[in-house]
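Throughout our pipeline, every protein is held as a single compact record rather than as scattered files. The record that follows is passed on verbatim for readers who wish to inspect the format.
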Amino acid sequence: MAQRHKIKSRKEHEDHPGETLVTTQHDVIRKWAEERGAVPATVPGTEHDGHAGVLRLDFPGYAGKDLAHIDWDAWFSAFDQRGLRFIYQEHLKDGDTSNFFRLENSDG
């Protein structure tokens, strides 16, 4: 697997468009999402024991009707408890803003 550029603060950015980045930093994730108009969300029906279910970000104009918005505190609480990493791009290879992201386990 290719080495991913680890981002540790909001001052760090991609070295080139299309680069895949990884972070666990809440402020980096929140800033990235808010710059794209995305809000924290979960998939209804996947919650358990009073905890948020499957985590998502709801982008304007996408499948938000199938998602339940939650606050950032709940989203990040679940993110941390599950030991997740945020894999993302700032820009596509052509320089356009990228909405690509996925969540994966830290050991994966």
